[in-house]
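Quarterly update, task 2.4: flavin-adenine dinucleotide-bound model.
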Amino acid sequence: MDTFKSKITQKTELTHNVLELKIEKPQDFTFDAGQFIQVVIEQDGKEVLRSYSISSTPDKDHIGLCVKLLDNGLGSNVFKTCREGDEIKFKKANGKFIVQNTNNDLFFIATGAGLAPIMSMIENELKKGSEKQLHLLFGVQHETDIFWQERLKNLAQNHNNFTYDITLSKPEDSWKGLGGRVSAHIPEEVSNSDFYLCGSPAMVTDVRKILIDNGKDVKDIHFEVF
Ligand SMILES: Cc1cc2nc3c(=O)[nH]c(=O)nc-3n(C[C@H](O)[C@H](O)[C@H](O)COP(=O)(O)OP(=O)(O)OC[C@H]3O[C@@H](n4cnc5c(N)ncnc54)[C@H](O)[C@@H]3O)c2cc1C
């Protein structure tokens, strides 16, 4: 089946402009960690599609989405006004942004809602019992833009092979963590890791260039652009 109909079971505000949605997973719906769905939106009698990466892992009974709300965005408005219990229509999962089978460690870089597919990949790898080193570099502007901090903290506490850093590009004076864009925190030694990037086109372009300059082969740099 190519189009699914299901129910929104949970809607949570993660920050002032990011929502998390949980959708009941239809029995015949399958996906790989890192893939996205296309949500079908009715507009003027036509069907319009908007892509959203799945933030949950394939073993769960729900499909998690993490949606950044844009002013006057078509999809954004649908999610802003939707309620738990509402029906949602979407196409089957798609996309090639999935963890590749290599012996390298995994270095993930996400900005904003770009954390959605990367969260799914990280949790899925850890659930599978991967013995690779996994590191996440997560960038947002302000401290109030950070989400899933507890989820990340719990993962790091429960898995010795997972670490993460959060960097703020516009930190308040009280912030004690890393500052600057993610591009300011790319390691020079990149030979042992595969890189997975997700976020704005500008971030992906900048970080890819740094990684290539540092000697990383393009085939080991995987990315999804929102
Ligand atoms: C593979 C993939 C995965 C993705 N995953 C995610 C995800 O997990 N989470 C997420 O949040 N997003 C994700 N996106 C982005 C998402 O698909 C949408 O593009 C995004 O949410 C904006 O859609 P929208 O309908 O809200 O805005 P749109 O209606 O497409 O509008 C985009 C922007 O343009 C402005 N705009 C619209 N019309 C006009 C106009 N006439 N004049 C001036 N400005 C205008 C809007 O205000 C808005 O700011 C993904 C995209 C891809 C390709």
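Highlight for this quarter: The chain has two domains: 3-91, 105-225.
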